[in-house]
Each structure stands twice: as structure tokens, then as C-alpha cells.
Amino acid sequence: MLRGLAVDAAGAADAVEAPAGAPPGPAGALPGPAEAPVGAPSCRAEEATLAALLRCCVREVAGPRGLVWPAPPYLLLRVAGTLLRARACGGAALRFEGRPERLESGTWRPLTSDDLVVLVETELRGHNREFAGQVAASRRAVAAILAARATQEPPADPWLASEQALVYGHPFHPSPKARGGGDWLRYAPEAHAEFPVRLLGVREDVLDEGGDPGALDAMGKAPDGYRVLPAHPWQLDLLRPAFGPELIDLGPGPAVTPTSSVRTVYAPDAGVCLKFSLDVRITNCVRKNAWYELAGAVELTRRLAPLFDLTAARHPGTRWLPEPGYRSAGLGVRLREGLGVIVRRSPWAVCSPGVTPVLAAALALDAPVTDPLAWWRAYVTVVAPPVLELYFTHGVVLEPHLQNVLVGLDSVGTPVQAVFRDLEGAKLVAGRHDLSGVPPEVAGALTYDAGRGWARVVYCLLVNHLTEIAATVAGTDDELLRELWRIARDVLARQADELGRPLPLSDLLAGAPLPAKANLGVRWARAADRAAGYVPIANPLA
């Protein structure tokens, strides 16, 4: 847990005295990700940017240094020697209420995101000339998204509407909406974008494909001797490929709708999702399909199919989205990766009749709850046990974070199914699978050692996912939040018993600290996302 901050099972902190002379907090509220700020787009963007960066400071800057402590109704922290305070609820999810403030010459004054950027830069030292610009770019992007949403209608499809609901992005990232690459707004899911793909023709002798990408052939017609290759128009603008006899431009294709990851779209005419390469940094990563990831998606689909069948036999609400094939142009690594597209099954194709898939991240904004305890028990039951079953029984690491899980709701809004997706993040535990015959580069990208895999499972499932859903269900009711975590512990303990009480899961239930991904740290270091470390936070299951 964070040193200097005593937290109980729901994240409520033990009381200490507020600084002498501290005035009462201001009226109004600074919402967390569960509630949209009210006001002009620029003001709402500033509030959201400040909240996200302040969460990062609590988790990664002040917390590990023992410089976070409670002074009800406030949470206090010190960054670069400056005392800050904010009203907080939601346990580890850190939902802020009211305007955060800084103590200046004995007086509490409103804190701005620019103020906090300066404090972070002073605290972390070193040199990162990009950091302030990334935070500012993210703030401008949120304002642009809010303005665009005011003039657009969301999709009628409830699943797609949920995919396009994530206006503010990752709640624990310093620049969750910073994007490069020109006219990005026309392709932004949060702005309710829809656009036609571009169709390319790849001459068959230079075609690079694996598995079964046949769904792509339904998207258009290519001349004899060529195969259809859909391309993201934004990526084509970035790549500017040379067209000629081997690669031809067939013009606009069917309309598609971008999902939450930006680069993955839903193609309703083909009935599939398409995961494109996109040479743009979104949160921590440049979103390009490396050549070994193209092949790895097909390999994992083949290997995971029987394991998901076994898991679904024990947990009937379990679903997943296979990635049966990919297609690209074998014209050098740059175009092979840059034009590579992975075919992914649609969630509507795997959910049972009468079940509506909804993105978990959208439920973290607004959960349709009438009976919070029953709803939460159903939610944890469909989401968590399959993840643990796959890890401990089958040696499979899923990344069940909020954007990788769709929750199937029945006609009254009760969670009855969980759909897991995105095989780029799924891995096999090293030593538990025979990868002989798989190219070394592909095999290396498919595996994690057991410790790294477990940390990823715990972070994605508990810290990124269940913590946020619980905070939304509980709102400001601390006792309800504690009861939600008692229910979660009961569900996980039953699964632990069925699995024979494996030691890592027993440690988790005993209160071992949770690993929280250090997004601020990896952005400050300008490192690849795979280099991101973890910081320990309090375990609400304890």
C-alpha cells in the first residue's frame, strides 16, 4: 500500500487533523470519470485533465514517497514541496469532488493543470521537453471532442455507442487523449466518427496473409490477379505508399465505425471488426501491427479456441473474439506492417440472443444499476473467474482491462456474459505450452514468464477494471463500497477453492498490495509501453 496512507478494504482513509487554519472547501464538484463535468468544452477539458494528472501524482509521485495522507473530508498530498488537497471518494479509483487546491502563502488557491505540470516537472527533475506539450495537447483534444459531440448523434447500435463514450480516456494517465498525425478528429470514436475505408488491390504474388481473412473479400471487388486490402485512410495519409503494378488504389470502400481503440473499426457490411495499423501514439504506444503480431494473432486464435471452450464449459457466460486471419502487402517491412489488417469477430456474433454487449469502460462511466449488490455480484461472477481459470488452469494471460472486455447485459441490464478481446495483449505462460515450430520472434511475442503474467492479470482485472466499476456503483457511499469488495472477495475466494488455492491467488486474498501501472513514469521516461513498471497500492480485498 502507499506508505503514509492507511486505507481500509474500501479505500477509506484513517482520520488525521487538517492543517491549522485550513478553510472549508469550495462549492461545486470536479467529477471523476463517472460523471461528465459541466460547462464550456475548454473548462470541462481542464477539469478532466487536472483530475487525471492529480490521480497520477497520488499514485506515482507523492504516494511512493509517503507524501499522501487523509484529512477528512480531504486527501492531502505534497508535490515538489507544495501542499495540495482535494475531496476524494471511490477508494483507489480516486474520484474527486470539488476543485483541487494548492496552499500558497497560507491560503488555499485553485489548482490548475498547468500548475500541476510545473510541480511534476520540478519533482521528477531530469529533462522531458515533451511532457508539458503532451498534457496540453490532451487537454485541447478533449475540448475538441466535446465540441464535436455537441453536433453529432451517437450510433443507434448500443454497443457502438458504448465504444464511443470514452471522452476523457484513461483516468490514471497524464495525457490520455494526446494524438499526433494531422486531422485526427474525423477518425475519433469519441466524436462519433464514421468514414469509408480505402480499398487497395494487392497483386497476388506479393500478397501476405495468414489464417482465414476471407471476410475482407466481401468488402469490395479487385481486378483479376489482385486481392482486396482495406486500409485506414488516416494510415494511408501517414504512410503515403507508392502505388504501381503491385499495389493499386481502388478508391473508397464501405463505411466503418471506429471503436474505443481508435484504430479498430466495425465494418457492418462484412460483419467483422478490422484492426488496422496506425502510426500514431495513443496513450503510451504507437499503434502499429508488427509483423510478428499479425502472425501471432492467428497462432493464438488457433491455440486459444479449445481452451476457451473448456473455460466456457465451467463458466457459461464466457465469450471471446477470435482473430482468425490477417492480410497485408509483402512489399518490405514498412508496408507489410503499416498496411497489415487483422480480422476480428464481431461481439454481436458471439453474444446470445437478447444479450447486448456493452464496453466495460462505458459501464465505468454509467452503470445501469437498480440493485447494486446483486448487479455487482453478477458482474464480478461473469468477469473475474474465467480470467483466473485461464491463468491458473491453462497458462493463459488475458489483459481484462476496461477496454478489452465487453459485458453482455440481459433485457433488464444484469451482467450475464463477458466477452474478452484483443489478442495482442493475450500471452501464454512460458514453459506451459509447446511452441516448437513457431518462429522465434513470434514465440517470444506470445509469452510472458509467470510472474510478469500474474502482475498483468491483477493490474488489468482489479486495478484498472473492477476498482473503477466498484467506484461507479458505490458513488460517494463508502459503506456500500466496502460491501462491494466483500462480495468480490467472496466470488474470488470461491474460485480460489475450485483452483486448489494457488499461492498467488491466496496472497491476493490475504491482502498483498496490488500492482498499479505507472503511466506517468513511462511517459516521463519517454519509454515504450512494455517498459512501464508498477507501483504498489492498497488491496481492497484485504
Essential attributes:
542 residues, alpha+beta, Transferase(Phosphotransferase), domain 1, disordered N terminus, 22% strand, 24 strands
Fold and architecture overview:
The protein has 3 domains: 180 residues, no CATH class; 157 residues, no CATH class; 160 residues, Transferase(Phosphotransferase), domain 1 (Orthogonal Bundle), CATH 1.10.510. It is built from 14 helices and 24 strands. Strands 7-15-16-11-10-9-6-8 form an 8-stranded antiparallel β-sheet. The chain has a 5-stranded antiparallel β-sheet with strand order 1-2-3-4-5. It has a 4-stranded mixed β-sheet with strand order 14-20-19-17. Helix 2 runs antiparallel to helix 3. The longest helix is centred in the C-terminal third of the chain and has 25 residues. The chain is globular and about 75 Å long. The N terminus is likely disordered.
Chain-wise SSE layout:
Layout: H1 41-62, E1 68-71, E2 74-79, E3 82-89, E4 95-104, E5 107-110, H2 113-124, H3 131-149, H4 158-163, E6 195-203, E7 207-211, E8 226-231, H5 233-239, E9 247-258, E10 264-267, E11 272-276, E12 281-282, E13 285-286, H6 291-314, E14 318-320, E15 325-329, H7 333-338, E16 341-345, E17 356-359, H8 360-363, H9 372-394, E18 396-397, E19 405-409, E20 415-420, E21 427-429, H10 440-446, E22 447-448, H11 450-474, H12 478-498, H13 503-509, E23 514-517, H14 519-524, E24 534-537
Parallel strand pairs: 14-20, 21-22
Antiparallel strand pairs: 1-2, 2-3, 3-4, 4-5, 6-8, 6-9, 7-15, 9-10, 10-11, 11-16, 12-13, 15-16, 17-19, 18-21, 19-20, 23-24
